[in-house]
Structures are given as C-alpha cells and as structure tokens.
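hey so i finally got around to running the thing on that chain from the lab meeting. sorry it took forever, my laptop kept dying and i had to restart like 3 times. anyway pasting the input first so we r on the same page abt which one it is
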Amino acid sequence: MKTIHTDVLIIGAGPIGIACALECKKHKLDYIVIEKGALTNSLFNYPLNMTFFSTSEKLEIDNIPFISNNPKPTRNEALEYYRRVTTSNRLNIKLYEEVVSVSKHNLGFHVETSKANYQSNQVIIATGFYDIPNMLNVPGEGLSKVFHYYKEAHPFSLQQVAIVGASNSSVDAALEIYRKGGNVTMIIRGDAIGERVKYWVRPDIINRIKEGSIKAYYNSEIKVIRDHDITITTPEGLKTIPNDAVIALTGYQPNFKFLEAIGVQFSEDDKHIPNYNPETMQTNIEGLYLAGVICGGMETHKWFIENSRIHAKQIAEHIVKTKKTKGPNNK
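ok and heres what got predicted. didnt touch it at all, straight out
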C-alpha cells in the first residue's frame, strides 16, 4: 500500500477538525483530514429537529459568517454551513476512512487507515466524544428495543417509551415523542430536570411532568430491561412498568483506548483528562495535538464549538513556530 506524506494529518472532520484544516491552509501547511463517517458526522447523527443552544455567530469558524433563520440555528442549518465552508475553501478531507493506528517514530507519525498509509510530521486529533455511549450496564441492555441515540419521534408513536436521563437530549426526545403520540416515562437519576437544559425548553418539560402528560421517576434507575417491560428502582421501592422501547441518553465519552494506544497520558482521577499544554494543545507526545471536546475527558460539558474554535489557531501557530525552529525538514 502506497504511503502518502503530509505535514499535518487531522483526525476528525467535525467543526473543529474543519477549523484546523482552515488554519493549516492559511499557514500554507500541507494537510489531510481523515473522517471515518460523513462530514461533521456527529452533527449529522444529532436528532433531525435539534436546535442548538448556541447562537449562530458562536458556531462560526475562521470568521466565516453563519446566517440562520433564527438566532439559534437548527441541525440542518449547521450541516449546510459547515458543508459550504468545506466546499468553498476546497478543504482536503477524506470521508468514510477510519484510522486504524497512529504510531510515533523518529521521522514523525505513521498513520494507518482503512484505505491508506500516511506519513505525517504532526497529528491533530479532533474526534469529539459522540461515538461511545455511556452504558447502563443492566440486564437486557442488548435488546433491540434499547437505543443510545435518538433521531426522530415517529417510530415511537403509540409506544410505551422509557427515556433515561434529564439532559437536553433526553428532554428534547421526551417532548417530541409525547407530541407524536408516544406514552413517555422519564427515568432520572437525580432529583430534578438538569440545570443545563435549554432555558426555553426546561419550563415546558417541567409543566408536562407536573400535569401528568409525561411520567417522571426521580432518584431512580433502570434495574432490568425485558421484552415487554422494565423494572426500575425508585425511592418507593422496585416498580415494573410496561415498555416497548428504552432510549438511554446518558451521555457519551471520548475513545480513550485510541488515545492510550498512541501513548497519551491522562489525569489519574475519574475525569480522565488527557495531558496537553493549554497554550499549544500539544500532548505529552511531541507533535501530537488535541482539539475540541476531546480535551475534556469525561467532562464532556467543558468544551463546545464556541469555546474550542481557538484550539485550531493555537495548534497551527505552534506547528509553524516549531517548523521555523527545527528547519524546513521539521526533523
């Protein structure tokens, strides 16, 4: 298999990976972006009717205007924006190509993918955290009626649906399914709807619960999932309720095993934050950088598009500075 050489290899073609590509192009760095799925794959897999919490200008990259019909854009508007940014700037992105391994050696990095081999001086990992869901780890979780992602409400019409969680995604799913004719029960580990839930949505879900349109069990967890019902632990004891589908929106986590295999070090606490320099975004491995939400480890609410866009500029500037220090061959 032929080896392709490049200055910078960027793993992940989400908004931050695209921002990194723009910065590389601006600094005349030879780069390639590798993405295992569709362009902005995580956004593509968001619920069809999702509205962002951030306003459109906070989702902009490289000062390219993001015009939306309303102050807070929809999923489809975001897909259109990042698609147009990519095509109009003719970014070098290879889609549906999965990275198999990344290894460091004297000449830089060897990156093996499902389609090619690459030799790169630097590697930027901007893979996000949406690919690995946090599991419930209960009997029956492997049944086909259990979902860890939610796309749209229609398949759950006229069904007994249990939604696990009280975050934005859980609340959006509960309200949509209820309004499409589903019988919704929320299973919530805490004692209230999450404080981070979008301020224009939170009163809606609280009122639907209060009036009894949506049933909510607080301080509760699923204990067992069966074909036609589930058993949950509640403050009043065990309860078994009819059930056709379980939507467990309990959050996601970065691919720690992938980073560990490369040699990235982590904090020793349960936050599992990767080791990187916050000024340059370089990890403990020289030439290997992190960008975007992956920097937060298990703190997946720490980094967003709006506050991690700056990572692309930090990384590109450090790469250019390093090239000048080491010389044209960057060895």
